[in-house]
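Continuing the series of single-chain predictions for the mutant panel. This is the parent chain; the variants come on the following pages.
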Amino acid sequence: MHVAAADRYDRMPYARCGRSGLKLPRISLGLWQNFGGDTPFENTREMILRAFDHGITHFDLANNYGPPPGSAEENLGRILGRDLAAHRDELIISTKAGYAMWPGPYGEWGSRKYLIASLDQSLRRMGLEYVDIFYSHRYDPDTPLQETMGALETAVRSGKALYTGISSYGPAATRAAATILRGREVPLAIHQPSFSLLNRWVENGLLDVLVEEGMGCIAFSPLAQGLLTGKYAEGIPPSSRAAANGSFRKTMLSERNLANVRALGSIARERGQTLAQMAIAWVLAKPAVTSALIGARNWPQIAECLGALRNLRFTRHELDSIDRHALDGDLNIWAEPGQSAQGPS
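Parent structure:
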């Protein structure tokens, strides 16, 4: 059993999630990659436990996180049972369903059949009776939004989830989803969009909708899958995501993007921060953003990200300088085919 640091809540600021009663740490930990069965378990355990000792109470998953799919939830379940069982009520555990998880017509997208079955599977993998947040992972253009939101309502009313969320929905679909759930008296609590210095699509209406609807915002990929750490400035490291050419597409390493990364790195150094720290601080400076959702390969990467909290303020001159180089780099790979970066109309 892990003995948690007594001062953990002195190390982290928390922010209210929209108009809900939920507070989230300003930095949350996502288990998208490097927490599955292909990663040494003790490394996963170290990252999660040390994160908790530094006040990170929110751990974000999805049914397909790994690899292999489902293994990140299984690993978190092992850690919850072995080390954090006594702290369950101090934790925010979220999971999602929307991307392909099992074969056949019922294993992805946004049907009631898929979402409810996936949530049940996730709970079994983690050994939990409920998750704190259950998300529709992506907008489904072929399923009525009433059905998808009805599945989220069912998750809450059945006690299998405490809050509802959506991810990567555009402004119009977000407003429609919020209207449906408000009418059912199960408010849509949170949106999880990609957002970074080089991926600013949420500023084209989505953040305004979130404020108007009273929803929280947790920004994922604030480091643009590592592009905003500066590690690609001199080429592609063999162990990096870009080398695998999976979710990180090598086309993202355009000379335009790399030139902007170098310029942003210079601004960060003038602020006394690493580029990663400035990138996280910049996202958190947006009033609509509740939390920045980071990923990591090891504990030192998490520790560096936590350093962003030491300086979250920007002068007008700094913001103007950043804006000259914080230009869209065609990084929003989560926009569905046939819809704009702003989502479905």
